[in-house]
Design goal:
Length: 218
């Protein structure tokens, strides 16, 4: 089986092929690439497998997973395609590497956050959790997709208070949407634009360690 995307894999520093590891799949923003997400999870590479997924559509010097009609308005067929291909890739990587299927996480920024939240809704508890940084859930996902329960999915959502791409109200609306559906949802804001502050990165690193550790003990 060939992978649906180009990708980069970071194995834990003391990797034991007999073990299964919590795994973070990273999804980058529009026009970026998988390498740009690595710095956000560097502190986690000792205990987690980290798999950076590169969008398959070129955009400038970087890549994207789908194209837009306008800001906040994905081309539906390309978006649907990305969701299906990412689900297939997660399964591919789970079979190829020492991934613990009970501790699979997504970490996405902007376009990657939009896809991470969508995948949480389509995969349900096949994912252990997601971290979504500065994103939203498209309306057509909420109303036209077949959605799974996220009651048992751990969700960390954050948003920049001064985000000039997706205004902060979008962050609050997104948090409210998940608040009704996901008891294990945490929402935090940071005094940033459309980016990730060191405090934000430290907070979700602590969140990953705590959540994966709790799963390991149960």
């Amino acid at each position: 089986m060939n992978p649906a995307y180009s990708y980069d894999v970071q194995l834990p520093s003391r990797f034991d092929p007999e073990k299964r590891y919590p795994t973070i799949f990273t999804l980058h923003g529009k026009g970026s690439n998988e390498k740009n997400m690595l710095g956000l999870v560097q502190a986690l590479t000792g205990e987690f497998i980290v798999i950076g997924i590169r969008g398959d559509l070129p955009l400038g010097a970087g890549f994207q997973y789908y194209e837009l009609k306008s800001l906040g308005n994905p081309i539906r067929e390309l978006f649907d395609r990305a969701v299906h291909k990412l689900e297939a890739f997660i399964q591919y990587a789970t079979e190829k590497y020492a991934v613990d299927p009970g501790r699979r996480y997504l970490l996405g920024f902007s376009q990657g956050a939009i896809l991470s939240m969508t995948l949480a809704l389509t995969m349900g508890d096949r994912l252990k959790g997601i971290v979504a940084l500065n994103g939203y859930v498209p309306d057509f996902v909420k109303t036209e997709y077949t959605l799974k329960s996220v009651e048992n999915v751990s969700i960390f959502i954050s948003h920049g208070e001064h985000d000039t791409v997706f205004p902060i109200r979008i962050g609050y609306e997104t948090a409210a949407y998940f608040q009704e559906r996901a008891p294990r949802m945490l929402f935090k804001t940071y005094p940033t634009d459309h980016g990730v502050s060191p405090d934000n990165a430290q907070d979700f690193a602590n969140w990953f360690n705590q959540d994966a550790g709790e799963s390991d003990r149960t």
